[in-house]
Each structure stands twice: as structure tokens, then as C-alpha cells.
Amino acid sequence: MDWSINTLPLPEYVELGVHSLSGLLWTLLFLFLWHCYRIGSDLPIPGHAGKLKSSSRRSMISRSGVCMGTKCSARSKLSRSDQIAPFISMETAKDEEQGQGYLTPVLSHALFPAQASAEAKKLYAALQEYAKRYSWVGMGRIHKGLREQTQVRLNDLSTIQKPHLFFLPDVPSVPFFPRDAHRHDIEVLEANYPAILAEFQAVYQRGTDSKSGWTCLGPKSQAVFPLYSAGVCVAGNCRSCPSTYRTLLSLRTFINSNSLGSAGFWLLGPGAILGSSYGPTNTRLRCHLGLQTPPSCELVVGGEPQCWSEGHCLLLDDSFLHTISHKGPPESGPRVILSVDLWHPNVAAAERQALDYMFTPDL
Predict the structure, then answer these.
(1) From CA 360, how far away is CA 316, in angstroms rounded?
(2) Which of 12, 20, 115, 258 could cross-link with 359 by S-S, CB 3.0 to 4.6 Å?
(3) Mean pLDDT, the chain, as a whole number?
(4) Which numeric CATH code is attached to 176-348?
(5) Which Gene3D superfamilies does the annotation name (predicted)?
């Protein structure tokens, strides 16, 4: 018996034309865009950072309205527009103990600690203004540091590292840093040592009074010839030392845009001892280029003693407890260094930009 394909009962089919195919593609594109919209509109659930759950704005508002005890009373002080806006809860005590508090987003309605100092509140307001202009990205450590300004551990007198102005948490540091931390800048300073020394000798021979550009810090010939003071260029002194000024501008990490940074010639007379003190912040390193270093001069940082050497740099973190002494005889002459403030290598570029904004120098 002969069989033919034409004898088989086949279902009817419809040819897909160009219009039908384009309609299908438009439908898939619409579904893809809707999917992206739903993913983008998901809001994190308070207390469960990193976990997203599809929900509408109304459901988020209803959850934010449920509160207990002090949390409810604190949020009741916020304006109606603030209550409607989605929020993310701040770090808890448990998060702080685990050292993960700075990972919590900083867009929060949690109030800044009332016991914070006026300076801390001023810096926090500057950080908020910076974030509005630019971004909160990379500001976690700075935000955490400002909130910890009032912590007891920062006021502990036994702490070996205790900057008195701003402490950036989770920044690894040691009293003295190796040359590799800022190799380029150190090599530039040491290469220009002869020119820098010659310019110091020229301004020193004119006298160390205020009319000559010097600032006396105390008895026993403690004086500084500032080139940059709190982030501001001292124009007259820089004109007297053009080679040193150009050298400073060629440094990659020199802090010359905020009040945390300074540079200048530091002079310490024989018999002088500078008592124990802390620097203002741990976000910088201080570089000392030895110009004139008589014997019996010593620098102790964090319990580690070091001596200066002419033509060579010492890189130190002055947020550690430090002392300076010149125990040489009167005829040994003053100890002279060029001190330059550089960024700490573990401070990111975004954090440096924010700190420049927060510590804008007073002109």
C-alpha cells in the first residue's frame, strides 16, 4: 500500500510575517523594561542591608510607621516629607562591635549624637553638603569617624594614637613609615636638598623675627618659616624660596588644599624639648627632610626613637604620641628640617576630595 505525506492529517499553520515578528520583539522589549523598573524600584528592608524585596512605596511607608519606644519618639520629630521618604537604619551596637558599621549606608534619618562637640557637628554638616553636591560613594569611613568623635576610647589618656581633630577609622598605621609609602615624593625632596638648604640659609641669615617671615613658637629658638600654613600659601615666603616652592608643587601627595596640610622650615635650638603631643589627624603623614641635624637630636614617635639625617627624609604619623628634643650644647647650632604634610597612603582619592571640602582653609 502506498503512503504519501499529503495523506497525513497536519494542523493548520500560520506564516509569521514581518509585522508579527516585530510585534513579538516589541513585546519582549516591553517585558524587559518592566523587569528593570521593578528591580530598580526595590527598596532595602531596614535591618537587612543587602537583601532586596519587591514592594511598593506604600508598603515601605507602612513598615516605617511601626516603631517602639525611643525609636518612635525620635522619628516623630521628623518632618512629614522625611517620614514619607524611604530610609535605611543606621548601624547597631552589634554592627559596631563586629567592625562593620562603616559599611552601613549613610543616607539615614538617624540623628547625629547630641553629645557631639560643636566641631564634630560642623564637620558632619560639611560632609552632608559635600554629599549633596557630589556623592555619598566612598564616604563610609568618614561618616563613621564623625559619629565616633564622642566615643570614650578617643578620650582615653592611655591611647598611644589620639588625633585631637579628626580620626579616620580602619586606617592601618605605624609610627614610622618606610620610604616605599611615598617613594616618588621622598626622592624629589632628597634630589632638591642642595637648593632647599641654600634657600633656608639665605632666609635664616636675614634674621628670625616676624618681619622676616618667621613665626616664633616659644623660647630656645623654636621658630617656623611657613611656606604653606593650614593649606594656605604664604606668598611672601614662597617668593623668597622659589626652588623649594616649585619642589612642593611637584609632589604628588602634598596636602595644599585643606587646613590639615602645612609645609615650612622648622627650627629647634639647643636645649629645647617639645613635650608629648598628638597631631590633628591620622589622615596625613609628616615628612621631615633633614637640613641641619646636630648630634643629640632625637624624635620619639609612639615609643620608637629616630634621628634625623642631613639630606634624607623621615616619614612619620604624628597622630601618635611624639616628643622632640635637642640636647646638644649651645655651640652645636639649631636643628633645621623642612616639614611637609603628605596624604596617608591608605586614604582613598574620594576621601581626600571630601576632606579637602570639609577642611577648606580659612582665607
Answers:
(1) 24
(2) 258
(3) 78
(4) 2.60.120.330
(5) B-lactam Antibiotic, Isopenicillin N Synthase, Chain
